[in-house]
Amino acid sequence: MRLRLIPRDERFFDLFVEDAANVLEAARRLEAMLRTYDLPEARAAEIRADEHRGDEISHAIGARLEATFVTPIDREDIHALISGLDDVLDDIEEAADMFVLYRIEAPTGTAVQQAAIIVKQVEQLHDALGNLEGFKELDRYWIEVHRLENEGDQLVRAAIADLFLQVESPIDVVKWKDIYGILESTIDKAEDVANIIERITIKHA
Fold first, then answer.
1. Where along the chain do its domains lie?
2. How far is CA 34 from CA 76, 111, 112, 163, 201, in A?
3. Per-residue DSSP letters for 18-46?
4. Please, are residues 108 and 114 in contact by the beta-carbon 8 Å criterion?
5. CA distance 125 to 169
6. What is the pLDDT along the chain (205 residues), one digit of tens a residue?
7. What homologous superfamily is domain 11-204 in, according to CATH?
8. What global pTM score does this model have?
9. Which of 76, 100, 114, 155 has the largest CB neighbor count within 10 A?
């Protein structure tokens, strides 16, 4: 039996999808955490486990990259893609932890809406990566991610304006500004991944 010492190039695409699926799982956990808000500590712990799993997938991709002479897309694009997905996942984890550390009694409607936007964005990224190998007809995915990012911007601007009108405690204002900020950052970083996918697609079109 002949051993294959050099991995097949196409395995990279499978790993991208696996990485995005893990980020999507974490995003869905965050949304579920905020919608039910029954066991925030347990939900946050599950998201931390997703983040550790994401690290494992990133390391697997990095090891494969080192062992592969010819990659299906440029090495810097592979690094950018896995780094971008890691950034989204890190922010999801930070957002979940923030609700626990700040002892938030109940999430606002805005926070729930932001979490829902993150899920929708990562769904688009996951689907785009599932079709990345063909490098065709991917524009609908990044266009929708951009649209969702604009929706998130409008949402958070209105929410922060309302904070100063409706929340009396300065400490609570600071807490919610921080939470809205990390959720907005997550939305922005999902858009960054969409931009990377667009760049890769244009190179290979």
1. 11-204
2. 36, 8, 6, 19, 35
3. HHHHHHHHHHHHHHHHHHH-S-HHHHHHH
4. no
5. 38
6. 344 445 445 689 999 999 999 999 999 999 999 999 999 999 999 999 999 999 999 999 999 888 888 888 999 999 999 999 999 999 999 999 999 999 999 999 999 999 999 999 999 999 999 999 888 889 999 999 999 999 999 999 999 999 888 888 899 999 999 999 999 999 999 999 999 999 999 998 7
7. Phosphate transport system protein phou homolog 2; domain 2 (1.20.58.220)
8. 0.93
9. 114
- Could you identify the residue written with the tokens 């979940």? 96
Chain centre distance of CA 124: 11
